[in-house]
Amino acid sequence: QQPVQSPQAVILREGEDAVINCSSSKALYSVHWYRQKHGEAPVFLMILLKGGEQKGHEKISASFNEKKQQSSLYLTASQLSYSGTYFCGTNSGYALNFGKGTSLLVTP
Amino acid sequence: KAGVTQTPRYLIKTRGQQVTLSCSPISGHRSVSWYQQTPGQGLQFLFEYFSETQRNKGNFPGRFSGRQFSNSRSEMNVSTLELGDSALYLCASSLGTAEAYGYTFGSGTRLTVV
Q1: In this complex, is the C-beta atom of B53 within 8 Å of any C-beta atom belonging to chain A?
Q2: Cα separation of A34 and A71, whole Å?
Q3: B100 in reach of chain A (CB within 8 A)
Q4: What percent of chain A has pLDDT over 70?
């Protein structure tokens, strides 16, 4: 089953914060986050495993609530380079099911 | 180290034809997955191979098939192409299971069916 992402699209000014949510109807072992810039391949951001540990790098972090089967991606003090489409991926057998993506545009 | 290499980058085919796409994973990665990406549906899982065995398959018709060779390179084939098969086809490699290690994606093959 495909995870559900919200919102579908976000427009921010540089320096503002954003939260992207991902929820699943089934129990999760892990949640993955990827970013895809226009015309490029999706790039891995981070994996969150069962345990609710918040991970991150630079000003992008994420949390995983396995009981609620939800994950959230936090973008703090957004930069122009954060623009792109963000996908969450959830475990499905030996592969990942991805949400339809959240389009993020950061403007000057 | 070299990333995931997909060939060709662009392809134009006519309805009814068949097509073969190729993917070379990162050296040492034995798992290769294929995804179809379209604007309306996002990333749709096609299949996953590990050590030449298909371990998982998505909900696509039998016209979509794939295989993996002993050197981990993978190919996917689409027979009797339809207009709706026009999409970006992405290959992703993983060290082990994607759920534990995540993916490295290739740049994709843009298939246009006319």
Answers
A1: no
A2: 13
A3: yes
A4: 93
